[in-house]
Amino acid sequence: MNAMTDISHLNRLSNQHLDALEEETVFILREVAAAFDRPTLLFSGGKDSLVMLKCAEKAFGAGRIPYPLLMIDTGHNFLEVTDFRDLRAKELGAELVVRSVEDSMKRGTVRLAHPGESRNVHQSVTLLEAIEEFRFDALIGGARRDEEKARAKERIFSHRDGFGQWQPKAQRPELWTLFNTRLQQGEHFRVFPISNWTELDVWQYIDRENIALPSLYYTHKRDVVERKGLLVPVTDLTPAKDGETVESRDVRFRTVGDITCTCPVESFAATAADIVIETLSADVSERGATRMDDKTSEASMEKRKKDGYF
User: Fold this and answer.
1) Are strands 69-73 and 96-100 parallel, antiparallel or unpaired?
2) Once rounded to an integer, what is the mean pLDDT over residues 48-63?
3) Which of these, 66, 227, 258, 286, is most buried using a 10 Å CB contact count?
């Protein structure tokens, strides 16, 4: 078998694998539409939600997604991402609902310990308020099991109690792709259609389907400082500290979120295919390499999820 035949064989295997993941995701998205009265798809404008959106297009047809898109905005998001979010929703003719942590702060339901505190963890409060406002009974999210340990404990259909809390030991079995979607008054589900995807799968799918993404995901010049093993972007919200050296580096973001806790990685990857190659050799998880707020135990994902986080 020559080199060209080897590559062709590997491409076929990759496509078969992606086809199987896509088929599962499409099935789950359709199952949500059939089983729930008021579902919504959480849409940040990030790569995982854009992959879900692509699968939703395939599930229902362009311009026919049967549930609204919901974003919880911290007010500290990258403009490149929120602008792209608005553009993509408009292109699809989808209803976009945005609820803001800043509005929760005005209502007094969110109170920061200090003005510079990250608002990321406080999205839980705004999310639960949005669920109550719209009476959502299912929220479709882009979490993947490979991201970190708490998310690996999730079912695809993850039950939440009347307080929006997650109880890991009370999750329902999912044998033979059968989902128990029964709810009591005030309860809801978080549904994760791409649970079985990995970061590599996502990038291979983006490459194959030619999915457009915010420019932050690809290499660009950015002022950063090195801090605790991370490259921290220098912005008005995250200024350099005394004694730190600001450098302009070629970077990209593996994940995008609140500016105050999201870091880029050094990279020259300009295309999805380039990122596939980089991801194959990555030895640090996506969140471990890029999230400042995941470095401390008190900000653990499991605690956040029990409090109602995504």
Assistant:
1) parallel
2) 93
3) 258
